[in-house]
């Protein structure tokens, strides 16, 4: 996974200048291009940063069982409530 940053060369930073993202933003981006908009004129670049994808741990079996138990309980409660409203006590 790649993160992209729009930057411009700011000569006022550091001894010889540095890339600065202030005033620049990404307008549109795809796998093949990135379009930026910056509030000033100058030398621009798109810096890329490799970001490791977040690893989501596998769901525990007891969580899956509790989820399905909740589905069953919710369905039963909905059907029970519907049947009570269709056949009111007299």
TrEMBL record:
Primary localisation category: membrane
Subcellular location: Membrane
InterPro entries cross-referenced by the UniProt entry: GAIN_B, GAIN_dom_sf, GPS
GO BP, one annotated term: adenylate cyclase-activating G protein-coupled receptor signaling pathway
One annotated GO molecular function: G protein-coupled receptor activity
Cross-referenced Gene3D superfamilies: 2.60.220.50
Keyword 4Fe-4S included in the entry's annotation: no
Superkingdom: Eukaryota
Disulfide bond found in the keyword field: yes
Descriptive protein name: GAIN-B domain-containing protein
Source organism phylogeny: Eukaryota, Metazoa, Ecdysozoa, Arthropoda, Crustacea
